[in-house]
Design brief:
Helix content: 10-25%
Order of helices and strands: EEHEEEEHHEEEEHEEH
Strand content: 25-35%
Largest sheet: 5 strands, mixed, barrel
Number of helices: 5
Oligomer: single chain
Strand order of the largest sheet: 3-4-5-9-8
Length: 252
C-alpha cells in the first residue's frame, strides 16, 4: 500500500493505553483474524489502570491536502457508506502487513453503498490509524534500534521495571475523531490486496458521520437519499450538510 503521509511528531516513549489492541496475533496471521460483531470495542473490554496509560498526539504530514474532497477522493481506491459493526483490536501490522509507528484499530464494517470503487462483499475488514496498544504488543514488530533506545531511556529515568503487558500507549492523529460502533459514516479508503483490509485514511475528513436514516439497509438508504433526508457531518465545524448534494457535487 502506497504511503500517503509521514509523521512529524511521534514519541515512542509512552506507557500507553489499552492492551486489547493487544491480541497476540502473529504478523503472518493478522489478515486472517475473524471478528464477531459486538456493541463493545476492544477498549471497553480492557481493565486499564490510567497510571499505566500514556497518550501521544501524532501530527501526520500528508502528501496532499486531506481537507480537499477532490484530492482525498483522488487518492482513495474506494469511497463508500457503511455501518461500523465492530472495533476488534489494535495492531502495528494488521493494515499493511508491515510495522506502522502509529498503531491501527481494526474491525468490520457493513457496506451500505459504494460511491467510488466496487465492493462486492457486504461486510469488509478495515484498519484505521490510532488506537490503544500494550507496550509489549507495540514493541513486537518495532525496529530493534527503536526498542533499544526506549529501553535505555527507561533505564536512565529509573522506569525500566514495569509490566509491558499491562502498560499501554494510546496514539491518535491530531484533530481526528474516534469512530463508534453502530454509527454510519462516509469513508475514504485504500484497499490492500495483500492483507484484504480497507485502510481508512484522511482522519476527520475521511470518516464523516451520516445521520437521518430510519434503517441501515440499502433500500432504506436509497429512499432517504432520494428524499434528501440524510445529513453529512463536518467534523471541523460540527455542522451538517446535505449528503445528496455532497455526492452530486463530487461524484456525479
Amino acid at each position: 500500500m502506497k504511503k500517503i503521509y509521514g509523521l512529524a511528531a511521534l514519541m515512542l516513549c509512552i506507557p500507553i493505553v489499552l492492551s486489547g489492541c493487544g491480541k497476540s496475533e502473529k504478523k503472518t496471521d493478522e489478515s486472517k483474524n475473524k471478528s464477531i460483531t459486538t456493541s463493545e470495542s476492544y477498549i471497553d473490554k480492557l481493565k486499564i489502570d490510567k497510571k499505566n496509560l500514556t497518550y501521544t498526539k501524532v501530527i501526520p504530514e500528508y502528501t496532499f491536502d486531506v481537507s480537499n474532497v477532490t484530492e482525498l477522493s483522488k487518492h482513495a481506491t474506494h469511497v463508500f457508506i457503511g455501518r461500523v459493526d465492530s472495533i476488534d483490536g489494535c495492531s502495528t501490522t494488521v493494515g499493511s502487513g508491515e510495522f506502522s509507528p502509529v498503531p491501527e484499530e481494526y474491525g468490520k464494517i457493513s457496506v451500505i453503498k459504494s460511491i467510488k470503487g466496487e465492493i462486492k462483499n457486504k461486510s469488509i475488514k478495515y484498519a484505521r490509524p490510532g488506537g490503544v496498544i500494550s507496550v509489549a504488543e507495540y514493541e513486537k514488530y518495532a525496529p530493534e534500534e527503536a526498542v533499544k533506545n526506549e529501553e535505555e531511556n527507561r533505564k536512565a529515568s529509573g522506569k525500566e521495571n514495569f509490566d509491558k503487558n499491562r502498560s499501554f500507549y494510546e496514539m491518535r492523529h491530531d484533530g481526528d475523531i474516534k469512530i463508534e460502533i453502530g454509527k454510519i459514516y462516509l469513508f475514504f479508503a485504500m484497499y490492500n490486496r495483500e492483507t484484504g483490509y480497507y485502510f481508512i485514511f484522511g482522519d476527520q475528513y475521511g470518516s464523516r458521520e451520516i445521520s437521518g436514516m430510519s434503517g441501515d439497509d440499502k433500500k432504506a438508504f436509497i429512499k432517504s437519499l432520494d428524499k434528501d433526508e440524510l445529513k453529512l457531518r463536518d467534523n471541523d465545524t460540527g455542522k451538517n450538510e446535505s449528503l445528496k448534494n455532497f455526492i452530486e457535487k463530487y461524484f456525479s
